[in-house]
Amino acid sequence: MASNKDLNRLKVILAEKKKSNLWLSKQLGCAPTTVSKWCTNSSQPPLESLMKITRLLNVELNDLVRYEELDKDEEKGSA
Q1: How do residues 27-67 score in pLDDT, each as one tens digit?
Q2: How far out from the chain centre does Cα 8 lie?
């Protein structure tokens, strides 16, 4: 299962944009611990949150999501 993989690049994007986890949590109206879990990939944001994050950080969804991690899981499943 891909749940513990590095599926998102949120931590990297926040650093590139010089924004903090706290800033993002305030913008989204969620707990700072929630954003922290997303940044460490211990959990993943829901699609609606991902869409809001792309607007707030002025990035594309492809910049946030690591599709190659999903590809690795699919390859393992078909082997």
Answers
A1: 999 999 999 999 999 999 999 999 999 999 999 999 999 88
A2: 4
Domains of the chain: residue spans and CATH: 2-78 (1.10.260.40)
The DSSP line for the chain is -GGGS--B-HHHHHHHTT--HHHHHHHHTS-HHHHHHHHTTSS---HHHHHHHHHHHT--HHHHB-HHHHHHHHHHHH-
pTM attached to this predicted model = 0.80
Compute the residue count for the chain: 79
Structure tokens at 64: 């946030």
72: Cα within 13 Å, side-chain hemisphere: 11
